[in-house]
User: Which sequence fits this backbone?
């Protein structure tokens, strides 16, 4: 199954590269200071995607666990596993 996943990822990357090359046109956009800049459309779309994805990822990875009272990394258990004592009075 892992080979199928890698084949699908490679096909998706190839399709993305074909679309990026075919849409490599410069798009003008206005910066906050009023200046006009030009950027290739695939890079502009990738930047917009990352501008939305990075804050979401940061929220899910760092802020949400802290708000829920969990630690960022699980505690490392000792090599000895603690075993609960047998329950009294459960014998047949």
Assistant:
């Amino acid at each position: 199954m892992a080979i199928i996943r890698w084949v699908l990822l490679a096909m998706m990357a190839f399709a993305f590269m074909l679309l990026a090359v075919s849409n490599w046109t410069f798009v003008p956009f206005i910066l906050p200071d009023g200046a006009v800049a030009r950027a290739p459309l695939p890079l502009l779309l990738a930047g917009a995607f990352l501008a939305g994805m990075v804050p979401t990822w940061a929220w899910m990875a760092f802020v949400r666990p802290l708000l829920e009272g969990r630690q960022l990394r699980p505690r490392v258990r000792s090599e000895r596993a603690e075993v609960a004592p047998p329950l009294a009075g459960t014998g047949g």
The two ends are 48 Å apart (CA to CA).
